[in-house]
Amino acid sequence: MKIGVFICHCGENISRTVDCPRVAETCEKIPGVEFSIDYKYMCSDPGQKLIKDAVEIHKLDAIVVGSCSPNMHERTFRSAAVAAGINPFLVEIANLREHCSWVHEDVESATQKAIELVRMAVEKVKRDKPLSKIKVPVTKRVLVIGGGIAGIQAALDVANAGYDVVLVEKEPSIGGHMSQLSETFPTLDCSQCILTPRMVEVNQHPRIKLLTYSEVEKIEGFIGNFKATIRKKARHINEDICSGCGQCVSKCPIKKKAFSSFEEGLAYRPAVYIPFPQAVPNIPVIDESVCTYYRNGKCGMCVKACDRQAIDFDQKDTMMVADVGAVIVATGYKLYSIGKQPLGSKYKGYGEYGYGKYKDVIDGLQFERIASASGPTSGEIKRPSDGKEPKKIVFIQCVGSRDPAKGISYCSKICCMYTAKQAMLFRHKVHDGEAYVFYMDIRAGGKMYEEFVRRAIEEDHVNYIRGRVSRIYEENGKYIVKGEDTIAGVPVNIDADMVVLASAMIPHDNAPGLAQKVGIPYDKYGFYNESHPKLKPVESTTAGVFLAGACNAPRDIPESVAMASAAASKAIILFSSDSLEREPVVARVNEDLCAGCFYCRKVCPFGAVEVRDIKDMNGVVYKEVAYINQGVCQGCGTCTATCLSKSIELAGFNNEEIFAEIAAL
Amino acid sequence: MADAGLTYGYFPGCSQKGSAREYEMSLLKVAGKLGIDLKEIDDWSCCGATSAHATNHRLANALAMRNMLLAEQQGLETLVAPCAACFNRLITTKAECRNHPESKKDVEELLSASVSNTTSILNVIDLFDKASNGLIGSGRVRDMKGLKAACYYGCLLVRPPELIDTDDSEQPDSMERIVKATGADVVEWNYRTECCGAAHSISRRDIVVDLSKRIIDDALMHGANVIIVACPMCHTNLDMRQRVMRRMYPSHKEIPVLYLTELIGLSLGFTESELGIDLHYIRFNMPNEIMNQTAQA
Questions:
Q1: Residue intervals in chain B for CATH 3.40.50.11810
Q2: Which of A64, A170, A229, A248 sees the fewest Cβ atoms within 10 Å?
C-alpha cells in the first residue's frame, strides 16, 4: 500500500507552533509512506489539486492529511480523494490544529506531537477498508405534530411540494395560539384574518390528512421509515355525518360548568362545543367530564337537536398507524402560570401579583381574547370582574422570564413586542385610557420592531417605566401597583383598573413525554434541542425528525413560519431520492460470536439494536442475537465498547485499526 | 399532653432576654403546656445579625455557626430561633457553608472546630405549623373568636425564597393556619410581607414610622382588631412606634400587636400577665366573647 501524507499549515494556525516542513520530511520515512508534502492551505483548490496530482503521479492507495479537525474538512479531503479515484474511507485526518498547535506553545514538542499524530493516522489508514454508503428506502410522507401556525405552514409546504402529510393536533381544532390573538405586531393585521385561510387550505388539501383531537402515542423506526401510532380521541360525534350546523351546541343545557380554554377561562362553553366559530374542522366535541349523559344517562338534548343522528355517546378512542419518512414536531408553547404554584413545581409563582386572586390581573393571552373581535367582550376592552371599561391599565413585562429566582433564566422574546401592541390597542380603543408598561429592557430586534415600540411610546403615548413591580394589591376597587422607576430612582405607585402580566413562554407540561415518544432530546425547561444552534436549527439530533416553532424556544409568528418552511424543505430534501444514502460508519454484529445478552440494546441511545432469531434447518429458533439496524445506527460505538464477547464491530473504527493507532504511539 | 417528649434546642438571641422578653415568656409557657421541651443551648452568643453581617461577612458567619455548633455539641438536632433575624442569619450561614466548601472551611478555622452543619433551624411559625401540628387545637381551652387577626410576616421569616421552605414567599399562609387553630378569624389584607423598616428604627425613625403606619392602616382598613407577629423587630416597630404615630398623626387609630405565641398562650388559657401582654405599649383588650368564656370556665 502506498500512502501519501499531506501536512497543512492552515495559514499560520498550525505552522506558528508546528514546524510543518519538518513534519512532512520526517513522516516520509514512516514505512508505507510513499510521498509527503506540506502546503499553506491544503483545503484550497490548489491544495486539493496537489493531493489529486500526487495520487496520480505516485499511484497512492490511501491518504493522511495533517490539518484541522475532521469536523471541518474531512468531507473536503474525502471528496478530493474520490475525485482522484480513492475510496473516501481510505482517508485519515490527523488533527494538528485543535489537538496540537492551538493548545501548545513550545514549537519543538508540538512538532514532535504532530509527527506522532500523523504516525498514528498512517498506521490506521494501512488497516482501513474501503466502505461504501448504505442505502435505505424512504417513505415519502411526513407526520406533522401540532396544528398551530408552525405545523400548518410545514404541512402546507410539504403538501404543496407533492408529498403526503399527516397532521396531528391534540385540540378539537387546528389554529393553535395564533387563532386566539387579536392583532399581530408590527403591522396590526388581524391574526385570524391571516390565519383562517391557511386553516381552511389545510382542511381542503388533498394531500393532507388532518387528525384533530388526536395524539401521538408512539413512534418507532428510523429516518425514512417511521411508524407512528396515533390515538384519535372520541369526540362522541360522527365526523362523517356531522355538518357542523351547531344545533347541538346551542341546545346543550350545560351553560356554566366548563370554562372555554380557547377564551382562556374568560367565558364558559357548553358540554358539547366547537372551540371557536372558525374552527377547523367545524365539528363539535362532547366533554364527558361535564356532560349530563355521562353522569346519569339522561338529557340527550343534543341527540334530539341533531337531525343527522351524528351524536354517538358510545364512540371510543381509536388507534391508527401511519408510515412516514420524516417527522416535524411543532407542538408550541404554553404560558407560565403566574399565580401560586403547586407544591413541588420547579417554578415559583408570583403570589405578590395576585394572579388568580384578583380577577382583573390577567395574562397576555387573556388580554388578547379581550381585545379580539371574536372574544368574550366582542373586542371591547372590559374588565373581567365587573365588565367596566378600564381607564388605566398597567402592563408588566418579564413576568417569569429572565428571573432565575422564579425558575426561568431565559428571555421569552415576544413579550416586549406584544405588550407594546396591547398597550397600543388599548389606547386605540379607549381614547381617554392611560397605559403604563413596566419593563426591564426593551428587546425589539426584528424588522420594523423597534419602530413599532417607538410608535407606541411617541404616537400612542404609552408610558414606559423602566423597573420592576414588587406587589399588586386591591384597595377601594383599584389595583395598587407598587413598582420602581429605576431611571428616576423613585418608587412608583399606580392605581390601575386592570393589570396585564406578560408571562413567560414555557413548553407544554407533556413536552418531555412527547420527546421520549419521538426520541428527541430536550433542555432543562422541556424545549426540544436543535442539532446545532447555528447550522442545524431545525434538525433534531435524531435523523429525520425536524423542529418548528416555539417547541424549540420562544418564537414569534414570523420565526415560527420560517422555521416551519425550513423544516418542510428538510423533509422535502429527504424525499428527493427514492433511497437515502447513509454514512457506512455503523456497527455490525458478528452473529456467530454474539451470545444474545443484549447489553448493547440497553445502552444504544438511538434504539438501533433489534433482536434477530437464528433458525436451524427446520426453521426452529435456536438462538437470539443482536441485530443493528443500519438505518438507525449513528456510529457512536457505545455498543462496541459494551459488548462482552467483542462481537460488535464499528466499521471504520474496528479494534485492529484502533490498536494499531495506539501501538504507533 | 398528647404528643409529649419533643425536645428542641432553643436559641433565644439577644432580644428574647431584653426588648422582647414577653416573646420568650409566652414561648416558654406555650411550649411547656404543649409538651415541647425547649432546651436553651448553653453558652450561646450573638447570631451575627445586622451590625456583624453589615460589616464583616466572616464574623457574621462564624457567630451564627458557633451557635449551631453548640447545639450540635450539646446533642440538639433541631434549633428553634424565635427571632426572625436570628433565624435568617442561621439559615443563611448554613446554606452558605453547605454550598461553598471554602466558606465552611473558613468558619471551621475561625471556630477551631469542625462542624457537620446538619442542625435543622426552625422559626416559631415552623415550630407550631410543622413540628407540633394539631397540638394547639387539642390543648385549646379558649376559643379566640372575636379576634380579627392580621397576620404579619414581615420580611425575614419568608425570604429569601431559595432558602425558605414555604409554599409562597409572597403569599404565605402558614401563620394564618396557626391563628385559625386558636379560633381567631384572619383578615385578608395587603401588607403581610411588606417591610416595617426593621433596624432603621434607631437611625431613621421617620422612615420606620411611615412604613409601619402603612402596615397598621392597611390592617385596620381590612377590619383587623389585632396584628399578629413572630419577630421582635416587627413588634417593636408596630407596637412601640404607635406612640410616635399618635403624636405625628392625631387621627391615628391604635391597634394592639401580639406575638403569635401570646395568642396561642391565650387560647391555651394563660393570663395576659403570664404571657407578658401587659408589657406592650398598646393595650390589648380581650374581646367580650372571649372574656365571657373565661368566666364560664
A1: 141-296
A2: A229
